[in-house]
Design brief:
Length: 409
């Protein structure tokens, strides 16, 4: 038995670039990618701070003054709705001496008053008052640092880069996918955060492949045909497309999964069928909420969207899911699931919350376990990456994309 060390890089090349260069095509990532703090820092610099990330649905802060605090890696972002209804994202770092200005996880506030020396910021981030400062102090130059923020089909995205990747193609692709399901007018029915004792990439890699669905998700596999080999689901997919078309709905599947080299964000939307007779992603496949958007009937299909490094979306005709992956430390991350229903749907009258969330709750609890088992396994110095199966094609693609991103300054 051989111990597999972190591959040794030659002295002339950056050790992480050396590891990327030694990656074996068609295989999984080496142990260091999940365990090395230097690679985690590189992930944060080149994936997290370069790409767009969905924070959730704008419906979580419906009224002027509503805010919520989001913590990702070592950053804390205040998402707030200003008096004029616009949405702002800013870093929770006082421009005086750096204290956190917002100390509550969510709420409603016209102002954020720093608990240290009471500099006072409006809910759009601008500095309104700084006590006992010299007369010539320029308040306008000391607002909270703002992040790029965009809202598309109700989804709120932030980007920490100085010059963000082009958002327009993303907005268009979301319009032709989530837009058809009426997500702009959806409401958040439920949210659940799952802490996971694993590097964030183990969680994402698990999400993007369904090779594990058969063995790990018996409940999901009863209704979703995705885990079948491609040739077996082609017939189901064709029948689904016919039904969607008969409803007069066109949902564009488009593969723009690309590196950020040309200033574009990666986005891939695709559709797949549920088994015959299955309407929605629920325990027994029956509907769980009122139909959304342009849907007047069930088409027996699912639209799935992968966007950038951390955002994944699932659309059923009667509900939707936002799946966020949140890096915390090299060894820990979180997955947040957000369930969407039609904006006017009322719990108890139009949907039973337990039934709505049952399938993805069960599935995500199973995922958390298998991701953590994998984290224990890859922590072994004897771990050697194995070959990626044909059914894991999306994982292979994600790994290739990731390696390219972290290689490029
Ligand atoms: S650190 Fe915020 S007012 Fe001093
Ligand atoms: Fe899974």
């Amino acid at each position: 038995m051989t111990v597999v060390p972190f591959p040794q890089a030659s002295s002339e090349i950056d050790p992480i670039d050396g590891l990327v260069a030694s990656h074996r095509p068609g295989y999984g990532l080496a142990r260091a990618f999940y365990k090395d703090p230097a690679i985690y820092d590189r992930d944060m610099e080149r994936v997290f701070r370069r790409h767009w990330h969905c924070l959730g649905h704008a419906n979580i802060i419906p009224n002027p003054g509503d805010f919520e605090l989001f913590k990702i890696d070592s950053e804390a972002v205040i998402l707030s709705r200003a008096e004029d209804g616009t949405i702002h994202a800013m870093l929770n770092v006082c421009r005086h001496r750096g204290a956190e200005v917002c100390t509550k996880p969510k709420g409603n506030a016209k102002f954020f008053v720093c608990p240290y020396h009471a500099w006072t910021y409006s809910n759009d981030g601008s500095l309104r008052a700084a006590r006992l400062m010299p007369k010539d102090f320029d308040r306008s130059a000391h607002g909270l640092k703002k992040l790029h923020v965009r809202v598309a089909e109700g989804l709120v995205f932030i980007c920490l880069a100085e010059k963000p990747l082009d958002f327009e193609p993303i907005a268009e692709q979301l319009r032709t996918s989530c837009g058809q399901y009426g997500w702009a007018d959806a409401k958040v029915a439920y949210r659940q955060t799952y802490p996971v004792a694993a590097n964030w990439k183990l969680a994402v890699e698990n999400y993007v492949e369904c090779y594990h669905c058969g063995p790990a998700h018996p409940e999901y596999s009863k209704t979703h045909a995705l885990e079948q080999p491609l040739h077996m689901i082609e017939k189901l997919n064709a029948a689904m497309e016919e039904r969607t078309c008969a409803l007069g709905i066109e949902i564009v599947s488009a593969d723009n999964w690309q590196t950020s080299a040309k200033g574009q964000e990666a986005i891939h939307s695709f559709r797949y069928a549920l088994y015959d007779g299955v309407s929605s992603g629920s325990e027994d496949g029956s509907p769980v909420a009122p139909l959304m958007g342009r849907f007047t009937d069930y088409d027996g299909g699912v639209t799935s969207i992968h966007l950038g490094g951390t955002t994944f979306l699932v659309c059923y005709p009667d509900h939707g899911m936002i799946y966020r992956f949140i890096p915390k430390t090299v060894d820990t991350c979180e997955m947040e699931l957000i369930w969407l229903v039609r904006g006017d749907a009322e719990e108890g009258r139009d949907y039973d919350l337990e039934k709505l969330i049952w399938l993805w709750k069960v599935t995500t609890e199973e995922d958390k376990k298998i991701i953590e088992h994998t984290a224990h396994g890859v922590a072994s110095r004897y771990f050697e990456p194995g070959p990626i199966a044909p059914m894991e094609h999306n994982e292979l693609r994600y790994i290739g994309w990731y390696l390219d991103e972290i290689s490029r300054p």
